[in-house]
């Protein structure tokens, strides 16, 4: 019943989707390799390759420092939220108790929070705790969105693990802590990788808190550094350098995505479809 | 068991100790969440009833609903409300339709499907700020490559200013958002498609029913739960849009969203009271939308 046009049109659509998805990033790479007046010529394959944009962002600006800041904040956020979320997910995923579904629902709704809704309260809290313009303040505030969703995803993974292994351990008189660390943690490794990656990407990409809770260019994270990059004058954005910086921060993410495709897709869908 | 009463006693004690452990294990997360989410939310709501300013957060006075009255009168706030709704409705609709199309393509069997799925993940993985900047450059009024391409194919007669022009600014924002988030939609819908019972499609194929008819009569109704969940997630996300608009159009009046408005009041104008009121209103709008969705039966409460 399938018409002769089925395969060709399938390939045509796939090609179209691929070009639309990849072209903007390709164009950023091409632009980052051009300097001077070359940047303003439209060439789809660069004639000459110049690395000066890449050198300048590290020399003229604390971009190296910004990358380290982002790594620190993202790793810190991911470690703390995974640690807390595993223990919470055990309780929510393995034990039946009153108020469990209400708790799950409120945790899910916190992850739906508009970030701006707590901005002024968080600003006050961060100043009170003396964490303003401090990377720890960012780790602290990032808990608002990473902790609910890591808890939520890990809970769905926890629920899928078979009952029997836990029952056997209870019969043997193992404590809850032992069950959690010795039995569930090893089984949860793949889920932890997935969840950790998603949390890492979320923290790496975060903008609003990073923009609001830091001032010095030394303490900025990468998204803020890129957004606030200015040229000689206000109206003359250094597009070549902005593209170079964009490529530098996006390449690692794309490599991660290429390696962990499957885990990422399973994590995304566990978080949403099963909700 | 030979001693039923003994075993049930053990069991209930076991249950009790397990429940106690469960709360113990939950405690750290609950404490952190109340500290980083609950407390700041309450403070923001409190600020929205005061005349707080950024320089004097401590010495604030209760002003009742003055800030909310101010917002009702403020043309910029009303504009940001309209913009946000318009942005959410149009972009989520486009993303749903395109996402469904892409999901159907990804679900078909052909060579190079893996490559396509990888390519689709790229826009999703790129930070919003980076995609806003990338597209800002592509859409540049003078040197932008999109104008060049459209001129080359004679689709437009002269370069358009895109993000910089009042007429096209919102369209540009929607374009970039659709590019960035359609893949997410497509992946969610693909997961839904893969869960559908294959027998229905097999039967329809054997009966020689036209594929389009199968799509309308079988695929779409079966996929409805997945579509609903994806639309809810995306709508709630779109209602709080900030990064893209802040960077791509610098929050111009044509594109300002409620989140951008609130932050502007809070930190650019230092009116913490008014900014908090705007943030509180946004919070209630999103809560209402969530409750509405739950009532409409979109989300299953058991969190399966």
Descriptive overview:
The complex is a heterodimer of chains A (275) and B (304). In chain A, helix 3 (63-94) runs parallel beside helix 6 and helix 4 (100-111) crosses helix 6 (135-160). Chain A has 275 residues and is mainly alpha-helical. Chain A has two domains: 6-40; 62-221 and 249-272, Orthogonal Bundle (MetI-like fold). Chain A has helices at residues 6-32, 52-60, 63-94, 100-111, 119-128, 135-160, 163-171, 176-205, 208-213, 222-227, 239-272. Chain B is 73% helix and 0% strand. Chain B has helices spanning 4-47, 66-73, 75-107, 113-125, 128-138, 145-152, 169-195, 198-206, 211-239, 243-248, 258-268, 272-295. The chains are: A mainly alpha (275), B mainly alpha (304).
What descriptors fit this protein?
heterodimer, A: 275 residues, mainly alpha, MetI-like fold, 2 domains, 11 helices, 73% helix, 0% strand, B: 304 residues, 12 helices
Regarding quaternary structure, what we see is heterodimer
Alpha-beta classification of chain B: mainly alpha
Please give the largest β-sheet of chain A: none
**CATH C-level label of the largest domain in chain B:** Mainly Alpha
First-residue to last-residue Cα separation of chain B: 32 Å
SS summary, helix count of chain A: 11
* CATH structural architecture of the largest domain in chain A: Orthogonal Bundle
């Amino acid at each position: 019943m399938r018409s002769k046009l089925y395969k060709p049109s399938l390939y045509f659509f796939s090609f179209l989707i691929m070009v639309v998805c990849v072209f903007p990033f390709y164009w950023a790479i091409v632009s980052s390799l051009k300097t001077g007046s070359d940047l303003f010529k439209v060439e789809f394959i660069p004639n000459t390759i110049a690395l000066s944009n890449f050198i300048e962002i590290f020399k003229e600006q604390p971009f190296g420092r910004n990358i380290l800041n982002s790594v620190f904040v993202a790793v810190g956020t991911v470690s703390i939220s995974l640690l807390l979320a595993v223990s919470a997910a055990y309780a929510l995923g393995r034990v039946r108790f009153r108020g469990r579904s209400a708790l799950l629902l409120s945790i899910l709704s916190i992850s739906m929070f508009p970030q701006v809704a707590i901005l002024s309260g968080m600003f006050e809290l961060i100043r009170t705790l003396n964490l303003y313009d401090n990377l720890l303040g960012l780790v602290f505030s990032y808990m608002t969105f990473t902790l609910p969703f890591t808890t939520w995803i890990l809970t769905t993974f926890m629920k899928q693990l078979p009952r029997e292994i836990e029952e056997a351990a209870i019969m043997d008189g193992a404590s809850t802590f032992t069950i959690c660390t010795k039995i569930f943690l090893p089984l949860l490794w793949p889920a932890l990788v997935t969840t950790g990656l998603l949390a890492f990407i979320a923290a790496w990409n975060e903008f609003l808190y990073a923009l609001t809770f830091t001032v010095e260019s030394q303490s900025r994270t990468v998204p803020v550094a890129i957004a606030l990059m200015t040229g000689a004058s206000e109206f003359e954005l250094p597009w070549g350098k902005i593209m170079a910086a964009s490529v530098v921060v996006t390449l690692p993410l794309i490599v991660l995505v290429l390696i962990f495709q499957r885990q990422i897709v399973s994590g995304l869908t566990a978080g949403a479809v099963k909700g | 068991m030979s001693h039923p009463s003994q075993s049930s006693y053990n069991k209930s004690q076991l249950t009790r100790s397990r429940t106690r452990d469960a709360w113990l294990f939950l405690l750290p997360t609950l404490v952190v969440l109340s500290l980083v989410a609950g407390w700041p939310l309450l403070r923001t709501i409190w600020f929205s009833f005061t005349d707080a300013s950024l320089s004097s957060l401590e010495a604030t006075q209760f002003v009742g609903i003055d800030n909310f009255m101010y917002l009702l009168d403020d043309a910029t706030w009303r504009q940001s409300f309209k913009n946000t709704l318009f942005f959410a409705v149009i972009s989520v609709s486009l993303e749903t339709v395109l996402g469904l199309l892409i999901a159907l393509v990804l679900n078909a069997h052909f060579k190079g499907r893996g490559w396509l799925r990888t390519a689709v993940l790229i826009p999703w993985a790129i930070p919003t700020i980076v995609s806003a900047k990338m597209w800002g450059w592509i859409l540049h009024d003078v040197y932008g490559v999109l104008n060049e391409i459209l001129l080359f194919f004679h689709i437009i007669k002269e370069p358009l200013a895109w993000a910089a022009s009042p007429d096209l600014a919102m369209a540009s924002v929607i374009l970039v958002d659709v590019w960035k988030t359609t893949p997410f939609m497509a992946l969610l819908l693909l997961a839904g498609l893969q869960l559908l019972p294959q027998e229905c499609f097999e039967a329809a194929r054997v009966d020689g029913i036209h594929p389009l008819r199968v799509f309308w009569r079988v695929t779409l109704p079966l996929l409805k739960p997945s579509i609903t969940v994806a639309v809810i997630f995306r709508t709630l996300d779109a209602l709080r849009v900030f990064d893209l608009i802040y960077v791509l159009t610098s929050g111009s009046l044509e594109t300002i969203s409620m989140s951008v408005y609130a932050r502007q009041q809070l930190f650019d104008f230092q009116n913490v009271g008014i900014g908090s009121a705007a943030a509180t209103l946004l919070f209630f709008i999103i809560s209402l939308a969530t409750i509405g969705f739950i009532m409409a039966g979109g989300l299953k409460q058991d969190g399966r």
